[in-house]
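Researcher: Structure prediction, please.
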Amino acid sequence: MSSHNSSELQVLCSSGQLLLQPLWDRLRTSKVPIQSPFFPVIFAIVTYLGFCLPFVVLDFLSPWVPALRRFKIHPDFSPSVQQLLPCLGQTLYQHLVFVFPVTLLHWLCSPSLLPPEAPELLQLLRDVLLCLLLFDGEFFVWHVLHHKVPWLYRAFHKVHHQNPAPFALATQYMSLWELFSLGFFDMVNITLLRSHPLTVLTFHVLNIWLSVEDHSGYDFPWSTHRLVPFGWYGGVAHHDLHHSQFNCNFAPYFTHWDRILGTLRPAPLPECSGDCGGCSSDSARLCASPSGQKKHS
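Model: Predicted structure follows.
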């Protein structure tokens, strides 16, 4: 019986590998070589801006489209050009001036050959989930420390909180130390798990999307936190409360660390109406509450 189950598992894994093999073959032989030292920076910038752009368009349209404001956590807020351009400029500057040289140095010191075989689908899904969980725990510790130790906050993390109402392009508006800290956690995790390059790309795409979604300011019916059951995933309203109140919801994605350490503050989900324009999540409470406007110095 056990040998029968084992053979079935092997067939399933082989099928998963065959499913991903055409995609991996195409990536390995593409005109933009993923082994190039330019690829990580280009990939990161293009993916990030590609995910931000739809929300920038929505923010531009929302003053004239009332239906969009139903899904905004802060219905009366739209980022100005004076807010958008510094965020975009800092992201491009940091990646080109600092991230690219580090990437190039890493490429020169330890060039890697791409494996011909694609990963098994179950292995890819497992490693992506493990990367998310590890990153979530690591950043939780980093985040709590940088809020609880005043000089750490002032020196390194305060810049990320300069926009009390988050928007998509503010996702990577952060100090260089914070950017490299996140990159370090990323590299440690994929190294420990010995993740396949396709797994690494998948994790990076998902990680960038979840980060942008958390800062987008839009709580849609299909937002990630509404798709993950049992309140395990915080999501955009959860992270918006952190930007408004500073002393809660430190984990970037999942809720278990905040729940265990007593820093979880759930965002109410029922629809509301009134002065906040019929918002769909916790926006009315934030608009009405003085704590929603509290600053952290």
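Model: The mean pLDDT is 86.
Researcher: Thanks, that helps.
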